[in-house]
Specification:
617 residues; mainly alpha; 4 domains; two-stranded antiparallel sheet; 25 helices; 2 strands; globular
């Protein structure tokens, strides 16, 4: 089945094309096409994974074009990492497709939504299967296009249009870095192929300095896609899209692409200590930075958005600390519990028609399926023992302590404390306490609950695949049996557990039992509260610097275009027009006029002859 891996992304592509052509005619039945295509992709991805378990490998390349001595190829690569990511992406995509049937029911552009989901899934699956940087870059840009279409799905809302444009522009900034880094590698190695580039590093063809420069530039692209500081501001605004889109973007596609790219190029990053430190530092800073902002958010989806930014920071920290396995492990568990949290949030929004958590409360009784499933997701992301997030976060903390700077380890610990606090602040405000004017709130339909149930199971069970009880399955899988678990102090797991429960306890005191005032932070340090609510003024800084500079340059260029370029064009047109007008007046049909012109012309020629000695004649 490995040789059929190339078919996996074709199912969602076919869904996209069919729904564009016939979706308006099929209307609500469009969901069946999208769900079936996603399910077939999942089945084939599972078959590829099982085949890979048997030791099979597969890579195929086809010539795309030849330019001089350079041959560009396209193909597929079914490595251990690729096969694993195929299943994660296809599974989450299928569950989101199923969930959307209930959530998007009645929307006028129902079929268009499913078409865009198909395009988005196709792009991510294509990226995962790419055997070279050029092909990966093409699918990378398609992922960006898919996110633009889905974030701006409610295009009649100004906020959605602005969010889509912001996401598109900010990720393009990162993509410039990716493109330049890719071309530097091609310039040095004359190849886009991953294996050729890795060999060039190993045999010294690619110098250490050039390697560092190229991979840091590529990492800028990953920063943009994965919403890392300082290119993170698009991600919270992307919550203007439909909630199923948020689940797909945050769990297994758009933001996962950046982490996947660094993981796919991990041998390059390992060859540069400076690059590894850059990745680890950006990850650690982003983890704590986003976690602090999450403390004061009042929009249920924005709380989850900042939690995504923070968790992706953990993954980058793991990669920078040299623990490729820990990063992919957390990417996997995060895909499940974050998809669960977003889909559960969608169920809440579906029930109460608001995203403001301060207007919610007492929904535990009214949403008997959603509430406990949300709790599972919250426990998992908080790193509570026995839940998936505990195992993957523990590996990251161990890697940060063993291989990374100690400061980054303590930043990660602090971020873990804040994560458990703001997630249970969210939980208590939404599900505990008294009901607030939502007497008609009711549980979501089965099409929405069923995917959450699957994700609830995975948010617990997926953590055990990297434990000694299962032979550190994922590590063995990703390293083809060469995995060596680095011994870490046992107190790290104990500390992580204490921190998780401490955050939950503090949230219970303030928002559950209400034994501490909710305005504790704003009352004592109002300037800190304001700083967090304004997201550290990052957007304001961008508006005052980058946006203002670009606006000034655009106005200058508009002035030059209007008064210089167009002015010269108008002057030339005026001269030609004046000459034509003068000439037309001479064409009056009178013989004496023609004679006068002839005599004048001869006189001019005589003068020229006299002055130049006949040189010009």
């Amino acid at each position: 089945m490995m040789n059929l891996a190339w078919v996996v992304p074709l199912f969602p592509l076919g869904s996209f094309i069919l729904l564009l052509l016939f979706g308006r005619r099929w209307k609500q039945r469009s969901a069946y096409v999208g769900i079936a295509a996603a399910f077939l992709s999942l089945l084939l991805a599972l078959a590829v994974l099982v085949d890979r378990l048997g030791g099979s490998t597969y890579e195929a390349n086809w010539t795309w074009m030849t330019i001089g001595n350079v041959t560009l190829t396209v193909g597929i690569s079914a490595t251990a990492l690729n096969a694993w990511m195929l299943v994660v992406v296809a599974l989450v995509s299928w569950l989101v497709h199923v969930y959307s049937q209930g959530y998007m029911a009645g929307d006028e552009r129902f079929s268009t939504f499913y078409a865009y989901l198909g395009l988005f899934t196709f792009a991510m699956l294509g990226l995962v299967l790419s055997p070279n940087l050029l092909q990966a870059y093409i699918f990378w840009e398609l992922v960006g296009l898919g996110s633009f279409l889905l974030i701006g799905f409610y295009f009649y809302k100004e906020e959605a249009k602005a969010a889509a444009k912001k996401a598109f522009i900010m990720t393009r900034i990162g993509d410039v870095g990716f493109f330049i880094g890719m071309m530097l590698l091609f310039w040095q190695t004359h190849s886009f192929d991953y294996d050729d580039i890795f060999r060039a590093v190993g045999d010294g063809t690619l110098s250490p300095g050039m390697t560092t420069l190229a991979v840091i530039l590529i990492f800028i692209g990953a920063i943009g896609k994965s919403g890392q500081f300082p290119l993170h501001t698009w991600l919270p605004d992307a919550m203007e899209g439909p909630t199923p889109v948020s689940a797909l973007i945050h769990a297994a596609t758009m933001v996962a692409a950046g982490v996947y790219l660094v993981a796919a190029l991990f041998p390059l990053y390992e060859a540069s200590h400076a690059a590894m430190m850059t990745v680890a530092t950006i990850g650690g800073v982003t983890a704590i930075f986003a976690a602090t902002i999450g403390l004061v958010q009042t929009d249920i989806k924005r709380v989850l958005a900042y939690s995504t930014i923070s968790q992706l920071g953990y993954m980058m920290l793991a990669l920078g600390a040299g623990s490729y396995v820990a990063a992919i492990f957390h990417l996997t568990t995060h895909a499940f519990f974050k998809a669960l949290l977003f889909l559960a949030a969608g169920s809440v929004i579906h029930a109460v028609r608001t995203q403001n958590i301060e207007e919610m409360g007492g929904l535990w009784q009214r949403l008997p399926w959603t509430a406990p499933l949300f709790l599972i997701g919250a426990l998992s992301i908080s790193g509570v023992p026995l839940f998936a997030g505990f195992f993957s976060k523990d590996e990251i903390l161990a890697a940060a302590w063993t291989n990374g700077p100690r400061l980054l380890f303590w930043l990660a610990v602090a971020a873990a404390l804040l994560t458990s606090f703001y997630m249970f602040r969210l939980f208590f405000l939404v599900f505990a306490g008294k009901a607030r004017h939502h007497e008609d709130a009711h549980e979501a339909p089965a099409s929405m609950v069923a995917p959450m149930l699957v994700l609830g199971v995975l948010s617990i069970a997926s953590g055990y695949m990297q434990t000694p009880w299962f032979g550190s399955f994922l590590g063995e899988w990703l390293t083809d049996g060469a995995y060596r678990h680095e011994a870490a102090p046992g107190w790290i797991a104990v500390l992580a557990t204490i921190v998780s429960f401490a955050g939950i306890f503090l949230a219970w005191l303030m928002y559950g039992a209400q034994k501490m005032p909710r305005d504790w932070l704003s009352a004592r340090v109002p300037y800190v509260d304001e700083l967090l609510r304004r997201h550290y003024y990052i957007d304001d800084i961008y508006r005052l610097t980058v946006v203002s500079l670009v606006s000034w340059i655009s106005r200058l260029l508009a002035y030059v275009d209007r008064f210089l370029v167009e002015g010269l064009a108008r002057l030339a047109a005026g001269i030609v027009g004046a000459a034509a007008s003068a000439g037309s007046r001479g064409q009056n049909g009178q013989a004496q006029t023609y004679g006068a012109v002839t005599v004048a012309g001869l006189a001019i020629l005589v003068v020229i002859f006299a002055l130049t000695g006949g040189y010009w004649l």
